[in-house]
């Protein structure tokens, strides 16, 4: 039955314009899966727009750049700050036109093109049953005994891996390579993406994993397991934010605007915490779900603007590569 | 001549699909990009690990295939089928299985710990090699086993009646077989390992174990530097073709002549030393390959209950893709089952899936919505990727049949159709079944291109495994992986079995 409606939907898709306006939103794969926020967002938005919201998952920026001005996308959601420079320079995106005052980010955000919808910080997650005395600072992590087993992600293939090298760069500056050399013996392995690393960690292959400050919330809320915690460093944690943007060439500008507005609404923001396992970008802390209230949070968010990040990126990756290749 | 025309069409389609996407990416990039620091090191590491992986896989495959060829024991058929399993597992699942055995808290280290011995660390070049041998030893073993089973029983009878010593028998019957099959098997495995990415990264332990494919990934998905991606893809292709050419030159010899297709009784290897040796090899390979598989099953079983409708729909998509790929691949492979075809096909596995996917995307884009083509494209690409394996399996037999029965059919004046239906296909049935089973299973397990074209309604099962992991659903992901393993193995078993029905075993 489902297959039939699916097939019918395929045929309908090309003719849908006639009766129902279609808003095409490119989103990351995890976003639209049945555990992600996508299905709920689709339901809520369609209830208020009298339109057909279609998520197209996959690579975001590479795909849009390949498609150029012929892209089908009206809106793209899930871009990271490390690609905004390239995205902006492509000239394919239009100003979002939204009032940014509802934002509750730990940093100031004034960008007129890229609209934040969630955030988190990179952090090392540990298991309290295995690590009794977690490092209390980045220096302590570097000086931890070499039998501390750590898994991280490759900065050349993963966004969180890239955030980590920028984090180290932000904390140690010119000493980044030396810091990596100290960390190297503790790094069990480097994986392609976050999923592989986190899988190794939950399988007990490592004591600590590079992830996000919000990861323990999943274990607290979905598994009632409070043994996973983020090690908090006073030096600050690298800040990651996910963004949405409107395509300049959209054929549904009003719907796209309506969707951008919806992103900052409480309906949307209220689902981000447990839908995306990250902090909502425009929701005061007292409205977060209870499990999120329990999270260990850093005092200080470290962040590079897109220009700074672009300038430092190659250097930061090289420092990592050289130190770990020795 | 009609068969020749078909071969030319099949060959051109292959060349076009291999080189076309690179060319399109190159045109879009407006020329080659420049290499980065570390890229040359990546090339060096890629070559070295691929060489060692292929060497070790082939080296161990010889005694194992020999033991399997001359022993009959209960469960042999099941074992031979299961030996195919590692090769078709999605990389991430296989790595998890290997870690459950060889990892920091795996079975091996728990055993060592209980004995008070120090921990063995799997991460590093040896980890990469371990995984690559785990994946490819079964492939090499099955290729050799096919060759062994193709030696007519009459030859062994003759050898026995001449009173040849085991060593003389090895030299006369088995060495020519190895010379004929091993170089090709080595080349195929070498090329598979060239494009290795996730294994090398997860088990390599760090940037020292960077492969060219990772650099392509970075250029493509992270930097959107198409020119650099195209350059790296061409380097990768060049390495594969060089390997193929070497194997092509080294691989010599022909079949053993026609026999009457009797079951092979073996007179050698009756001594207790030979028996113990064979048993040892079989036991060793069974433990090495089946233990990690067992862990995948053990961990996946509880997750099966967590699977939702999405996963089953994805399984349906994977089955359709697998069957389509298999049909296409077999039709494609038959006219190309000769030396030239095999060399040409090696290029297909050396193409980076990322470059291939992007190229196809750019080619399709002006005509159709590429995402509505997700499943057909995946099917096509899988057929293309499996072609080298299919040819490697089919070619020795196909050539032997042409050589042994060509004169007879010329005397009888058989039409090409009658030749194909009456002589060629029936005699090719065993390798054809094996090749089809392998293609189907590979297509089931492939992630490559679908990730670029993914649509929520058109996910395949391997993609679903990644999606589940990305949503913290690690247990459900293990379940989906187990489902994938079960389906792949069943397909493989059915097709391989189909090829062996009535063929003596």
TrEMBL record, chain A:
Location in the cell: Periplasm
Signal in keyword set: yes
Presence of the UniProt keyword Signal in the record: yes
Main location: periplasm
A Pfam family hit: SBP_bac_1
Gene3D superfamilies xrefs: Periplasmic binding protein-like II (3.40.190.10)
Annotated signal sequence range: 1-18
InterPro entries documented for this protein: SBP, SBP_1_CS, ThiB, ThiB-like
Keyword entries, A-Z: Periplasm, Signal, Transport
Record-linked NCBIfam families: sfuA, thiB
Family, similarity comment: Belongs to the bacterial solute-binding protein 1 family.
Protein name according to UniProt: Thiamine-binding periplasmic protein
Organism: Tropicibacter oceani
Gene this protein is translated from: thiB
UniProtKB/TrEMBL annotation, chain B:
Topology within the bilayer: Multi-pass membrane protein
Keyword set includes Transmembrane helix: yes
SUPFAM superfamilies, alphabetized: MetI-like
Major location category of this protein: membrane
Domain spans labelled ABC transmembrane type-1: 43-247, 315-495
PANTHER family registered for this protein in UniProt: MOLYBDENUM TRANSPORT SYSTEM PERMEASE PROTEIN MODB (PTHR30183), THIAMINE TRANSPORT SYSTEM PERMEASE PROTEIN THIP (PTHR30183:SF9)
Protein name from the UniProt record: Thiamine/thiamine pyrophosphate ABC transporter permease ThiP
Organism: Tropicibacter oceani
């Amino acid at each position: 039955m489902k297959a039939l409606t699916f097939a019918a939907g395929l045929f309908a898709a090309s003719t849908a314009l006639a009766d129902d306006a279609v808003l095409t939103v490119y989103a990351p794969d995890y976003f639209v899966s049945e555990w992600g926020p996508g299905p709920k967002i689709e339901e809520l938005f369609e209830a208020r727009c009298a339109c057909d919201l279609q998520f197209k998952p996959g690579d975001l920026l590479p795909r849009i750049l390949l498609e150029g001005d012929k892209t089908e996308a009206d809106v793209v959601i899930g871009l990271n700050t490390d690609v905004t420079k390239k995205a902006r320079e492509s000239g394919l995106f239009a100003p979002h036109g939204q009032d940014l005052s509802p934002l509750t980010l730990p940093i100031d955000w004034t960008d007129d093109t890229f609209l934040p919808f969630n955030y988190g910080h990179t952090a090392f997650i540990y298991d309290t049953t295995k690590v009794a005395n977690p490092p209390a600072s980045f220096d302590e992590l570097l000086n931890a005994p070499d039998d501390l087993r750590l898994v991280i992600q490759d900065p050349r293939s993963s966004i969180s891996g890239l955030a980590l090298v920028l984090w180290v760069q932000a904390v140690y500056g010119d000493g980044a390579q030396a810091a990596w050399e100290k960390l190297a013996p503790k790094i069990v392995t480097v994986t392609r993406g976050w999923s592989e690393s986190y899988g190794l960690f939950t399988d007990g292959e490592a004591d600590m994993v590079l992830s996000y400050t919000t990861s323990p919330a999943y274990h607290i809320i979905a598994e009632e397991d409070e043994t996973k915690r983020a090690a908090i460093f006073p030096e600050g944690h690298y800040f990651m934010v996910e963004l949405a943007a409107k395509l300049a060439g959209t054929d549904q500008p009003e719907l796209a605007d309506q969707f951008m507005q919806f992103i900052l609404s409480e309906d949307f923001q209220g689902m981000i915490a447990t839908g995306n396992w990250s902090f909502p970008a425009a929701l005061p802390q007292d409205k977060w779900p209870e499990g999120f209230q329990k999270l260990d949070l850093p005092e200080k968010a470290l962040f590079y603007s897109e220009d700074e990040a672009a300038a430092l990126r190659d250097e930061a990756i090289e420092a990592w590569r050289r130190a770990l290749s020795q | 001549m009609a068969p020749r025309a078909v071969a030319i069409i099949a060959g051109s389609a292959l060349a076009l699909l291999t080189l076309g996407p690179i060319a399109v990416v190159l045109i879009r990039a407006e020329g080659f990009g420049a290499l980065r620091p570390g890229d040359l090191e990546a090339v060096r590491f890629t070559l070295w690990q691929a060489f060692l992986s292929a060497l070790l896989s082939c080296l161990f495959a010889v005694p194992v295939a020999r033991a399997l060829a001359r022993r009959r024991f209960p469960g042999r058929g099941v074992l031979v089928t299961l030996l195919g399993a590692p090769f078709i597992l999605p990389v991430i699942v296989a790595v998890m299985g290997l870690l459950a055995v060889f990892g920091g808290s795996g079975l091996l280290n728990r055993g060592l710990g209980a004995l008070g011995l120090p921990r063995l660390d799997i991460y590093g070049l040896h980890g990469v090699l371990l995984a690559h041998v785990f994946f490819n030893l079964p492939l090499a073993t099955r290729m050799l086993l096919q060759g062994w089973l193709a030696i007519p029983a009459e030859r062994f009878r003759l050898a026995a009646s001449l009173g040849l010593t085991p060593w003389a028998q090895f030299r006369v019957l088995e060495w020519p077989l190895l010379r004929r099959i091993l170089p090709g098997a080595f080349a195929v495995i070498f090329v598979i390992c060239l494009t290795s990415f996730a294994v090398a990264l997860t088990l390599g332990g760090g940037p020292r174990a960077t492969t060219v494919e990772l650099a392509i990934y970075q250029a493509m998905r992270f930097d959107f530097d198409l020119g650099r991606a195209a350059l790296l893809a061409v380097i990768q292709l060049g390495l594969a073709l060089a390997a193929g050419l070497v194997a092509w030159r080294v691989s010599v010899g022909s079949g053993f002549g026609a026999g009457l297709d009797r079951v092979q009784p073996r007179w050698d290897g009756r001594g207790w030393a030979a028996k113990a040796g064979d048993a040892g090899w079989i036991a060793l390979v069974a433990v090495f390959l089946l233990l990690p598989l067992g862990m995948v099953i053990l961990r996946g079983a509880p997750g099966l209950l967590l699977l939702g409708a999405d996963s089953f729909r994805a399984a349906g998509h994977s089955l359709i893709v697998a069957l389509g790929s298999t049909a296409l691949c077999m039709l494609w492979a038959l006219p190309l089952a000769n030396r030239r075809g095999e060399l040409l096909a090696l290029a297909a596995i050396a193409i980076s899936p990322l470059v291939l996917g992007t190229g196809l995307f750019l080619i399709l884009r002006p005509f159709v919505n590429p995402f509505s083509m997700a499943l057909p494209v995946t099917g096509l690409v899988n057929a293309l990727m499996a072609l080298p394996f299919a040819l490697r399996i089919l070619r020795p037999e196909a050539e032997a049949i042409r050589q042994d029965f060509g004169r007879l059919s010329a005397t009888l004046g058989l039409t090409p159709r009658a030749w194909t239906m009456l002589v060629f296909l029936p005699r090719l049935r065993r390798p054809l079944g094996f090749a089809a089973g392998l293609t189907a299973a590979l297509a089931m397990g492939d992630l490559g291109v679908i990730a670029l074209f993914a649509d929520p309604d058109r996910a395949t099962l391997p993609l679903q495994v990644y999606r589940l992991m990305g949503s913290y659903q690690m247990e459900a992901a293990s379940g989906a992986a187990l489902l994938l393993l079960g389906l792949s193995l069943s397909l493989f078993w059915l097709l391989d079995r189909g090829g062996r029905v009535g063929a003596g075993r």
